[in-house]
Amino acid sequence: xxxxxxxxxxxxxxxxxxxxxxxxxxxxxxxxxxxxxxxxxxxxxxxxxxxxxxxxxxxxxxxxxxxxxxxxxxxxxxxxxxxxxxxxxxxxxxxxxxxxxxxxxxxxxxxxxxxxxxxxxxxxxxxxxxxxxxxxxxxxxxxxxxxxxxxxxxxxxxxxxxxxxxxxxxxxxxxxxxxxxxxxxxxxxxxxxxxxxxxxxxxxxxxxxxxxxxxxxxxxxxxxxxxxxxxxxxxxxxxxxxxxxxxxxxxxxxxxxxxxxxxxxxxxxxxxxxxxxxxxxxxxxxxx
Length: 288
Known about the structure:
The protein is α/β, with parallel strands linked by helices. It has 9 helices and 11 strands. The chain has helices at 8-28, 44-59, 75-87, 106-112, 124-131, 140-151, 171-178, 197-201, 269-287; strands at residues 4-5, 34-40, 63-69, 93-96, 160-164, 186-190, 206-209, 227-230, 234-237, 245-248, 261-262. A hairpin with a 7-residue loop joins β9 (234-237) and β10 (245-248). α1 (8-28) runs parallel beside α9 (269-287) and α6 (140-151) packs across α9. The mean pLDDT is 95.
């Protein structure tokens, strides 16, 4: 068999068109959705991520407030910038690009962002609202995964879902969303302390991998016909490539010979993350 490729790029474009229409409707009411993007330092990968987000905002008819701070910025100075953005009624969402320099406590930074502007859904209040199923933002990458499953009519209710990776960004929030009654999945979380991970991945109807381990999941580790969602993005040295590296996920692409559904890297979950971020900015502007 050959897996159905879950095209996150195509679905993200549909969502972005919808977001653009909503942004246009808000503009007619005198509201221009705006996301403040704060970047501390000159990390190359962060600069690239920020640029892609800013381009997406522009294409959707939204504004981005670009704030670049030097590596030497103190935690106190960064918190003051966030305080000012919290008070700015023309800013609807605040995103501080991770990672921040080592001398800054990232938990303090996240906690300083007003929950109503926390479009990343990292603030403890945002996380609590998600777990308690109260009104609020949904975390971008997990929400993107759920949208892909829905788009391709992958059965989730009653399914055995195995998540490899327990990060606060993907694994933990996705598990909490999947056990909601609207999804009704049975979830197993695997991590570095899991014994015999093979026994778990082999029984997964839906396998979500966010392990930061290049091409870790092989065909012999999955069940025939499983939906395999690869959240990983890794740079692997490759002298055959002009840049000296290639981008790959946490799943070996050869699983397509056995899986029923598969998200490629790039072009799978990645574009969905940005699309759901735009959706959160729109929701923040509408609530304002």
